[in-house]
Design brief:
Blueprint lengths: L2 E3 L6 E3 L2 E3 L13 H13 L4 E3 L8 H10 L8 E6 L15 H15 L4 E6 L8 H13 L3 E7 L3 H14 L4 E5 L6
Parallel strand pairs: 3-4, 4-5, 5-6, 6-7, 7-8
Antiparallel strand pairs: 1-2
């Protein structure tokens, strides 16, 4: 396996990563815990050490299944990324978005489902028009300082939004984003 750095960090990740959107859940195209374990075992056997999930993937089941699949492996050798943004409970207006309350709750729940004390890459899954980016950045920086998150990333937002986040982080002395998962368009 070839390795590269995780964005602007020094953390080494396999050039091939495993996305876990299909782990857990009950749709025909979802993988059972047993099938997901086989994917993780095969990946690790071939030197893959980078696994990407999100709290919204199958209502948190993806994180739980991935965490269980990685239990038998040396945690220090694996690089796990997860994301937060989407509404997780229709009855709880604070279970989505990027406010301090939403992020703190989402991160605690993700760490619990993953069975981990810290996640290697914590990504904002979308831009939140309802929360000032400064609040989001302060909250993410606090999570890094508490040792719950090692690196920060962003996903699925427009370039001008990401540029605003990067510039705001730089001006405010907040933890920088080391990665960006872009919108993809085959056209």
């Amino acid at each position: 396996m070839e390795y590269t750095t995780l964005g602007g960090s020094g953390t080494k990740v396999s050039r091939i990563g495993i996305g876990t959107n299909t782990f857990g859940g009950d749709a025909d195209w979802h993988l059972s815990a047993e099938a997901a374990q086989e994917v993780v075992d095969t990946a690790v056997d071939h030197g893959i050490n980078f696994f990407d999930t999100a709290n919204a993937y199958n209502a948190g089941e993806s994180e739980r299944v991935l965490g269980e699949a990685l239990e038998g492996y040396d945690r220090d050798r694996q690089v796990v990324a997860t994301k937060a943004y989407f509404q997780m409970d229709d009855d709880d207006p604070n279970s989505g978005g990027l406010s301090r309350k939403a992020i703190d709750q989402a991160l605690a729940n993700s760490l619990d489902r993953l069975g981990m004390d810290a996640v290697d890459l914590y990504q904002i899954h979308r831009w939140d028009d309802e929360t000032p980016i400064e609040e989001t950045l302060r909250t993410l920086t606090d999570a890094v300082e508490r040792g719950q998150v090692r690196h920060l990333g962003a996903s699925s937002m427009w370039t001008h939004q990401f540029a605003e986040a990067v510039q705001t982080a730089d001006r405010g002395g907040h933890e920088p984003f080391v990665t960006m998962q872009n919108h993809y368009n085959l056209a």
